[in-house]
Amino acid sequence: MLPLLAIYALIGGGLKYIDDAFDEGMHSRRVASILAVILVVLWVALSATDPYSATILTAVLLGVLFSGKIDNWVFTASTGAIVLTILFLARENLLLLPLAILTIFGIIDEKGNDYVDSHRAHRFIEFFFAHRFALKLALLALCTTSLLPFTYFVAFMCFDLAYDTVGYLGTVELSKIDIKRMPMLRSLYRIIVFG
Questions:
Q1: What are the boundaries of each domain within the chain?
Q2: pLDDT tens-digit series, residues 135-168
Q3: Rounded to whole angstroms, how far apart are CA atoms 160 and 81?
Q4: Is the whole model's pTM more than 0.85, yes or no?
């Protein structure tokens, strides 16, 4: 179970790192491009060997794709590679009913996230869509009805927690962290952020 949780966390955090690198200019695009290759390999390996992961990860991908959120060349290339692999290697792994449900709720999350980013909304609604709770609740419902094992809800929470953590850390200003006295940390930071 621990390797599965770690892989989901790596995929979630990696996606946010890549997104912030290309959309916000927060991190190194070179590191983000290398990370994208690693994530595609992990995503494809999970999808080809694990029907539950194939279903959940494909639903995440389709939710983002149908919402028009594939907005840089790294995500476009990665999406193409994943879709082709799923079509040729993992198509039989997809569980169609959970896939349809999770995709619909993924789209609701993405559209809701766009809405709260550009409009004033009640604090609960803003929090709900800022942290994309529709998909989480749909996945929880599928797990409680035994359509998916509960382990995958925990794994997806690791994905989501890593995604949010990387997003938060990306907003922390370097000046707030006293790394002048720690040259190794400063060097590591420069490699990760600036490549």
A1: 2-194
A2: 999 999 999 999 999 999 999 999 999 999 988 8
A3: 23
A4: no
